[in-house]
Design brief:
The protein is α+β, with helices and mostly antiparallel strands. The chain folds into 2 domains: 100 residues, D-amino Acid Aminotransferase, Chain A, domain 1 (2-Layer Sandwich); 157 residues, D-amino Acid Aminotransferase, Chain A, domain 2 (Alpha-Beta Barrel). Helix content is 24%, strand content 32%. The chain contains 8 helices and 14 strands. The strands form 2 sheets. Strands 6, 7, 8, 9, 10, 11, 12, 13 and 14 form a 9-stranded mixed β-sheet that branches. A hairpin with a 4-residue loop joins strand 7 and strand 8. The chain starts with a strand and ends in an 8-residue tail after the last helix. The relative contact order is 0.15.
């Protein structure tokens, strides 16, 4: 792993989660969905009141990239200063990065995954909805609910029972012939792959309860690094199966569209 110097102890990102991050897939040094990542970072900077770094500075780590697949993590904090929770009047943001080689979980592309509902409920905070801020304790606690490697991900709902996302991926399903994904107006992270797919006009953002997954003809999880995993089994919080799916053409069609944006192999080759 290649990275910049560590954080000082008084950095507000380390102390309060006062900052943002982006995790970007690189293919032979070329960032995938770069415009979407920059757009989300800019939205987060606007919400938090942190100056947006120059695109030149954000792109500097690309000069360190090698061949093949790598993941670039960009972390931007408000920097140091201020008194307690009160931020400094004139922030001096601090930008750090890490580069690491990456291998996707291709078996999950081919065979599909088993997922479960989480007990934890996401708190609604519309001001922070959609952005990728550094305070991810809800996701950490949700992911700690299971240690069975057979379960790939956990599904998160908000405190009113509305479906939102998985712990580290966005959620999609096909129901009554329509591709749907949860609305993230109140909480959740608007993934860059999700944004790119929605921009094509084929996915509807909806408010739906957990019953939508049981009713669905197909379910997927996806993000801009791992690609798309089709779901073959959904469990409740006790590990009891709620629904099973057999992978078919409809699963592969959506997967192929998403993987085309990331340069991954099309599932038709499976």
């Amino acid at each position: 792993m290649r990275e910049q110097a560590s954080w000082p102890l008084d950095d507000r990102g380390a102390a309060y989660g006062d900052g943002l991050f982006e995790t970007i897939l690189l293919r032979d040094g070329r960032p995938l969905l770069w415009d979407e990542h920059l757009a989300r970072l800019a939205r987060g900077c606007h919400v938090l009141g942190i100056p947006m770094p120059a695109e030149h500075d954000l792109a500097l780590p690309l000069a360190e990239a090698g061949s093949g697949l790598e993941v670039l993590k960009l972390t931007l904090t408000r920097g140091s200063g201020g008194r307690g929770y009160r931020p400094p009047a004139t922030p001096e943001p601090r930008l750090r990065w890490q580069l690491a080689s990456f291998t996707p979980a291709e078996s999950r592309w081919r065979k599909g995954v088993r997922i479960r509902h989480c007990r934890l409920r996401l708190a609604c905070q519309p001001v922070l909805a959609g952005i990728k801020h550094l305070n991810r304790l809800e996701n950490v606690l949700a992911r700690a609910e299971w240690d069975d490697d057979a379960i790939a991900e956990g599904v998160l709902s908000d405190d009113s029972g509305r479906l939102i996302e998985a712990t580290a991926m966005n959620l999609y399903w096909l129901r009554a012939g329509r591709l749907e994904t949860p609305s993230l107006a109140r909480c959740g992270v608007a993934g860059t792959l999700r944004e790119a797919l929605i921009s094509r006009g084929e996915i509807q953002e909806v408010e739906a309860g957990e019953e939508a997954l049981v009713q669905a003809d197909a379910v997927w999880l996806g993000n801009s690094v791992q690609g798309v995993w089709p779901v073959v089994r959904l469990d409740d919080v006790m590990g009891r199966a709620l629904r099973r799916w057999t992978l078919g053409r409809q699963h592969r069609s959506f997967q192929a569209e998403a993987h085309g944006l990331l340069g991954y192999d099309y599932p038709s080759t499976y």
